[in-house]
Amino acid sequence: MEKPMSQPEPNVDELMRSIAEETDTPTETVSKLYADIVAVYRQDARVFDYVPLFAAKKVRNQLRHSADRKH
């Protein structure tokens, strides 16, 4: 029996650097926020394939929103 195909997880380090650059936020801050959000999403998730993508999107949106409020 063949295993169902799942989405490959994004390269998290690359993703953290990208979000850090886009939002002008230290990579450590981005990584911590991402880890916290992934942990919350995994608590309630039934399907885990897209958790990293959803978490990255939320991190990006939160950091952009907080940057907008600073200006």
What does this structure look like?
- The protein has one domain.
- The protein is mainly alpha-helical.
- It contains three helices and no strands.
- 70% of the residues lie in helices and 0% in strands.
- Helix 1 packs across helix 2 and helix 1 runs parallel beside helix 3.
Task: Give the helices and strands, then pairings.
Elements: H1 12-23, H2 27-44, H3 51-70
Helix pairs in contact: 1-2, 1-3, 2-3
Helix content: over 70%
Which residues sit in consecutive blocks of at least 5 with pLDDT less than 50? Answer: none
Report the order of strands and helices. Answer: HHH
Largest sheet: none
Please indicate the percent range of residues in DSSP E strands (runs of 2 or more): under 5%
Distance between the termini: 56 Å
Q: Tell me the total number of β-strands.
A: 0
Brief overview, please?
This is DUF3562 domain-containing protein. This protein is mainly α and 71 residues long.
List keywords for this structure.
mainly alpha, 71 residues, globular, 3 helices
